[in-house]
Every structure is written in C-alpha cells, then in structure tokens.
Specification:
Largest sheet: 10 strands, mixed
Number of domains: 2
Helix content: 10-25%
Distance between the termini: 25 Å
Order of helices and strands: EHEHEHEHEHEEEEEEEEE
CATH superfamily of the largest domain: Thiamin pyrophosphokinase, catalytic domain
Length: about 200
C-alpha cells in the first residue's frame, strides 16, 4: 500500500501533488495541516504529531484517528513516516513539505535520506518538481530538457553522471549549489556514486 503524507507547509496547488493528495489510498496528516483538510471536507486516515497546532475542537472531532507523539527530537513529518512504518507501509509520497519557512523546507528535504535509510521508498512532490533520495547508483527516468539538480549531503561522495548536459566526472559536490541547474539529454540519466547519499530534484 502507498500512503500520502500531508505536511504543514504550503498546501499544494500544482496538479501533480494535489492529485496525489485527493486520490490517496491512505492519507496521513501532520498536525496543523488538518486545518486545510477541514476546509476541503477531507478526512485523513491518521492525524499525527505532537498536536500543538491542532485546535481543541478538531482534537475532539478527530479523536479516533489522533496519534500523539511527544518526542521533541523529531518533527511531525518524521512522526508521520514512523506511523506509516509501524503500519507496514513503506511506499510514501510527501506533499506540502516546502514553502512557508525556509528552515522547515531545508530540514524536510534533508530528512529524505534518513527515511530512505529506514527502508522507505519515498518521494517528495512540490509545486515545481519532485525530490527523491538515492542510497545507491541508479538510472532515473526523465525527458529531454528536464531540469535536474543533484545535492550531496556527504561532501566526500564522488559522482559520475551520464546523459546530463553538464557532466560530473568522478567529482564530489562539496557545496549545495554545485550540482544545481543541470539538464537531462533524453528519457533517462544515470548517477554512479560512492558512498552517498544523494538527493535529486527533477522539475515537472
């Protein structure tokens, strides 16, 4: 089964993340994001977090699907991912995790690698594109002219690319900006790297 997690960032407006949300086979809502679902008359399968942003009348309304997690060492998005894992769900699409505060956006994107290490097949959809973590070398579906950015949380990772406009040939990316604004040359591109991980952004 696949789950869609709605984080409490900017509510999605692009058709791709919005369609994932509206057609989710199982919808997990992070804390205060319940306000937007309430306005749309959408009921999630679970409402997860430390619940500090959930209004009291909504706590009462959704009491049967509340999952309170007081752990202040993790954010609400991670709490939602752990809820999915506890229910044996490892295919997860995250929406609404960017926008609003930039520190939250950077933190949520950075957490993708942690989720991958936890055994989650995870994708984050924004209003402009898709982000996914990579733990091992792989070939990725694309299209000619697609904008691609590569982020390397480990600045010791050596990267070799194929079928990108600006090749990276056995080089690390020690600064965040260094792998941005590349472009796919066809319906695939390939990333060979060690030790990893990487985070890949693909514009829609």
């Amino acid at each position: 089964m696949k789950a869609v997690i709605l984080a409490n960032g900017e509510f999605p407006s692009h058709p791709k993340p919005l369609n994932e949300l509206l057609n989710a086979p199982l919808l997990v809502c992070c804390d205060g994001a319940i306000d937007r679902l309430e306005n749309l008359a959408i009921t999630p399968n679970a409402l997860v977090g430390d619940l500090d942003s959930v209004k009291e009348h909504l706590k009462r309304k959704y009491e049967s699907i509340l999952y309170y997690d007081p752990d202040h060492n993790t954010n609400d998005l991670t709490k939602a991912v752990k809820w999915c894992l506890n229910h044996r769900i490892k295919n997860i699409v995250i929406v609404g995790a960017t926008g609003k505060r930039e520190d939250h956006t950077l933190g949520n994107i950075g957490l993708l690698c942690n989720y991958a290490r936890m055994g989650v097949n995870v994708t984050m959809l924004t209003d402009t594109g898709m982000l996914q973590p990579l733990l091992t070398s792989t070939r990725i579906e694309s299209y000619a002219g697609q904008q691609v950015s590569i982020f390397s949380p480990n600045n010791q990772t050596v990267i070799y690319t194929k079928n990108l406009k600006y090749p990276i040939v056995n080089q690390p990316l020690p600064e965040l900006w260094m792998g941005t604004l590349n472009e796919s040359l066809g319906d695939w591109f390939e990333l060979t790297f060690s030790p990893g991980p990487l985070i890949i952004y693909q514009k829609y």
